[in-house]
Structure formats: C-alpha cells, structure tokens
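Dear Dr. K.,

Following up on our conversation at the group meeting, I've run the structure prediction for palmitoyl-protein hydrolase from Trogon melanurus. I'm pasting the input sequence below exactly as I used it, so you can double-check it against your construct before we proceed with anything downstream. Let me know if the numbering doesn't match what you have in your notebook.
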Amino acid sequence: MEEPPALHPVKLYVYDVSKGMARRLSPLMLGKQLDGIWHTSIIVHKDEFYYGAGGISSCPPGGTILGPPDSVIDLGNTEVTEEIFLEYLSSLGESMFRSECYNLLEHNCNTFSNEVAQFLTGRKIPSYITDLPDEILATPFGQALRPILASVQVQPSGGNTFSSHNGQS
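The predicted structure tokens came back this morning:
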C-alpha cells in the first residue's frame, strides 16, 4: 500500500514596508485610506522565499532586515517536494523573475508571491495586496509619483540570492 504524499504548510508573510506611515498619511496624500505598503514572501520547506531587485532570494523565516512579518496568512498545504520546488524556483529565476525584470509597480515581490502560491496551492494571495499599485496609481498623487516609483528598486537585505546551481548561494 502506498503512503499518502507528505503535506507541507505554505504561509504568506505580509510586511508593511511603510511601518504604519501609509495608514497615517495616505488620506492626506492620496485622498483614500491605505492600510500599508505591502511586501510579501512565501514560507515553505522551512525557508522564506521572496523576489526583489536582486532576483529571487531566501532566508530563514523572518530573517530579512524587515524582521517579523506584520501578518501571516495560511495558504494551505502543498504536496510539492522541496526538490521540485527548488527546480521550479530555478526556472522562475532564469525566466520571468530575473533581477532585471523587477518593477516596483508591475512585477514585484507580490507578483512573485502570487505566482508561487498558485503553483504550490492553487490559491492566489489576497487581492488587497496585488491591487495596491493600481489603487495608488488611480489617484492624482499616485500618477505624479509614477515616474519615481517605477525607478525604485527594492531588495530586502538579509537573505541569500537563490542560485540554480545548489539551491542557495
């Protein structure tokens, strides 16, 4: 008799990179309330995986300069083994999530988390996270900031850049 496949928990770490400033200043600056400026990462197989201007990186959970997450969302479980997952990340790092593909507004950490969450669990991350750039850009102030925001490169320090050679470098 075959053993059932092992299930591995998948979590979404959500960080407010504004450290509460978005909540306080967004009504004045944007004319609407934002609860935060979100950076996300995926926790699976005992590591945290995220995407930034340096490409795909990993670290122990909570191991970036951002510290502990502001919230943790349980995305369910996956049957995807660590070996298959690392191969998948390697292919992403060589294709759509190369460092030069990073764009704060259109192809960022949340795009990565959403893609990986769907691969692992079939579920998307919450829309309040993925819709945030469009919400900001829908305001006059957001439109004025667009050229500046489009040039911003974000890479939380503290992790290891993911390498296809051995999983981590």
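Two things stood out to me. Helices lie at 21-30, 82-94, 109-121, 127-130, 132-137, 140-151. Confidence is low (pLDDT under 50) at residues 164-169.

Best regards,
J.T.
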